[in-house]
Amino acid sequence: MTDEAFDWHAFLGRWQEEWTPRRHPDGGPDEEADEEAAPGGFRLGGPPADEAAIRAAEARLGRRLPPSYREFLAVSDGWYVEQMAGVYRLGGTTDIDWFRDPFDMAPLYEEDLGDDPGEEEVLLAGMWRRALRLETESDMSYALLDPGDRDEDGEWALHLYKGWGGEPPDRYPSFRAYMEAMYRGFHSTRAADPGFMNATTRAQDARVEEARLLALRGRHEEAVPLLEEASSFGRPRSGVLLQQVRQLQGRYVSGDYGLLVADPRHLPEVLPVQALAAPPGDGRPGGDDHWLGMMAARGVDREAARTVLGALRDGTHRYEPPGAWGRAVARAREEARWGATDAAWRVLRDALPRWEAPGPSLIAPIGLLADPVLGPLVTPERGRELLATPRSGETGPVPEPVADLDPPGLGWLVEPAAGRGASDGFRCVWVEGLDPAGLPALIGEEGAGLGVPTDRRASWRAPRRHGRAGVEPWEDRAAVAVGRTAGGWAFAFDGDSPYLDERFVSPAVAASAHGRAVVVWREPRRSSPGDRPAAFHLSVAERGEAVYAFTVRGGDVQRSGTVPEGLDPARLFRPEDTPLDGELRVLEALHRELGLSLPRFALTRGRLPTLTTRSWTRAPREGETFAYITFTRHRA
Question: What is the structure's pLDDT at 266?
Answer without folding.
Answer: 92
